[in-house]
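dumping this here before i forget
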Amino acid sequence: MSVTAIALNGLLAILLLIALAFGVRLERRLKALRDSHEGFAKAVADLDRAAMRAEQGLADLRAATDEAADTLADRISRAQALAVQLDERLNRPMVTPPPAAHAAAEPRAATRPIRAPEPQLPPETPRRLRAEDFEKLLDREARIPRDAPPPSPARSSAPKETPRSRARIDDDLFEGPEDPPRPGSTFRGRR
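structure:
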């Protein structure tokens, strides 16, 4: 063999080793790229699942908001109807019992007025207090003794829990601590 053939074989061996080293480096980089691609695919899948959960949560929240709005609208309409009914009852004239009924009543008991039957008025014309009604009311109050105790309910003296008082308690649960008013400020805070 000649020196030229040996030199060319040596050069070829060196180039093959260099190509092998580049191939190994390229394989490592491709493996890292494949791993990062798989990690990216997992992250995208996790993000997709989180987006689906968020959409479901928004749908649930929207349904709860619609239900709360319907309940609130129902309560508002009932409150308006009760306010109208209370206004009608307050504007009805007061009727006192005849004098014969006073004699049969206990001497210490205060006379209680009896309400007249509710008049059937069209809803367009609200009932107003007339001068005669006002005079009857003043006469009735004049007949009540000044030292008569206020009428006491037959039930126990414990306060009755109402939806309004329960709502006030619920509101207190969700309110944070109140900040003390700043010196010189006229703000008195809530309630």
